[in-house]
Every structure is written in C-alpha cells, then in structure tokens.
Amino acid sequence: MAPEERVAALMDGLHSILENAVESPSHWQVLLDASANLWRYSGGNVALLMMQMAQRGTDEPTLVAGYKEWERHGRTVLRGEHALWVIAPRTSRVQQMLLPDGTRQRVPVGSKLPSGAVDEGKKTLISGWRGQAVFDVSQTQGAPLFVPRPGNSSVEAPQLWASLAGVARSHGFSINVTDAQYGLTSGFTDFGQRQVQVGGWLNPEERIAVLAHELGHVLLHGPDDNVGKLYGSSVDHRGLAEVEAESVAYTVLKAHGIDRGPQSASYLSGWADAVIAAEHSATGDGSSRNQPASRVDIAKSVLGRVTAAAKQILEVTDPPGLGGKVTAAEISPMVSNPDTYAGLKQPGEPSRGLEISGP
Description:
The protein is an alpha+beta fold. It has helices at residues 3-23, 25-37, 43-55, 67-72, 153-170, 204-220, 226-230, 238-255, 261-268, 271-285, 295-317, and strands spanning 64-65, 75-77, 84-98, 104-108, 118-136, 140-142, 145-148, 174-178, 187-190, 195-199, 353-356. The radius of gyration is 23 Å and the shape is globular.
C-alpha cells in the first residue's frame, strides 16, 4: 500500500471510530479507558491501535514501540506478526528570517539569506503525515520486561493531590478548599481571580476527582480558548465543556488506578448529546469558515484536546506504568533487581504489574 493510501485508510478508520463514539457514550468511555493506559500517545493513535488490535481478535494494546526500539530493549518481533500503524508527522527544518521590509520568511536550512535579512533561528515544521509501523509487546519475544500497572489509589492519594495542585499553580491558579463554595457546587474555576475552589465537605478521593475536573477547565476553557469557541466548548456553552473537563479527570484518575466510572456517568452519558448540540450551534452560526463541519470533526477535536490536556497533567503526576511507550522507560529489559524500580512490587506484596518473558 502506498504511503498516501495508508494514511487515507487510517483516517477513514478513525472517522468510523469517532462516528461510533458519537452514537454511543459507552464507546467514548472505552476510548478514554484506552487513553488512560496509552496516555503518551495522541487520542487518534490510541483509537487506531485499538481498532487494529480488535480486528485481529487480540487484546487491547498495552505497550507499543517500533521494530528497532524493541530490539534496543532486547526483544524481537515474532515471525509472521504484522505491524500496527499509527499516524506520525513528517517534519522539515526551516530557517526563519526577518526581511528589511519587516516581513518574515522561511527558507530551507542551509539556504543563503538575502542581504539585510536578520537570522531568527531554525524551526521544525510539520509538512505532512505518514504511517508509522509499531508492534504491541504481545507481538514480541525475548528479554523479560516488567510492565507496571496502576497501583493502589489510596496509598498515593496525598501525593496525587499535591501533584495536581502543583499543575494548577504552574498555570497561575491557587487552590481554595472551602465549605463556603459558591452555590455548593463541588468545584469551581474562577479565571478572573485565577483560583480553583474545591468543596471542603468532600472526602480526599472526591477532592482529587474534583480538582482533576477543574484542571480540565484550567487547561482547556480559559478566555483564550479560541478552538473550543468554534464548536461551543467555551464558557458560553457549558455542555461540551463539562464533558471535556470530566473526560480529562476520568482519564487522569484511571491512569492512577482510580475508576470513577459510576461517578462520571452523568457527565459522560451526555457526551453524544453535547456533540450533536455543538454541531447544530456551529452549522447554525456560520460565522467562521474554520468551524468543524460535522459531529465527527467535533469529536476528533474533543478527543485531541482531552488527551493532550490529560497528558500534560500525567507528565507531572507520573502514574505507574509507561503510558504505552517503552521509550518512556529508562530501564534495562533485563531487570536484575526489580524492587529498585518505582511501580514494581515489594517483597511480600502481590504483583502490581505484568512480567513479559516470552512470546
């Protein structure tokens, strides 16, 4: 298959997945579950990996890498296995310059700059898209590799709260846990005061869940949320904004071993209705030719926004596991003393991970 045809086929597959997700909130939740496990991948690539594994009648992907990356970790792809495909950017390096007339221009690196032009440095740009072959760990054999699984949430609750609060502070927001919460809502994000409020009557796990939800608002729904405004996820259209925020919280907590499915149900069950309402709003307005044209476009945008925000949080909170990418682990696949690595079991404890040693 030609590279262009492969990318087109992958995009068609993603379109079908998102259509199903809009039709059924349960499909959206399945996407979030997979995104929690493979959080280092984009939402679109998580969906594509799930689709391809399902087509083969095998388990969902857990740890994915390219052929050479697996070799670097002492494992080889089993004979007869076919690659999974993800979409990766084609990039090019350009030289940026400021011309004497005040305009800016980019030229290929190495090109001679015009007389009087000011060199503004080099930049990497996305010039297109390509299919990239990867393999799940279940398609490999070789040196044992310990894949940590999410641990006991109650053990890490104080640390998780502290790291989530750190994310808020890094974006200029303070945290206020108060019984005088506005309208007795569990949480509230005040962009004017740069403050996140959390209900003081909540138990520790509920406070964590509310803070994670409000971080979704912090990262996605500020006054400069120009993308969200295009399809109704701004402050003026709370329906889809609330689904986005709860999807971020659900993914982050799931990655930390906290299943908030029942508590998130009321938000996530409104997913399809919110997308359809946003579609009607976008098509009825017609004020911007850049607005997503269909509910699938909206779903794709939401998935990308949610998974990008969740990744930004998880890179700070650092849950057990590798986020789907073996390259995230700075460990040798031949683990001689596994208890020295974070997320592995301690002597006498039940295993909290999956040890892969053979085919």
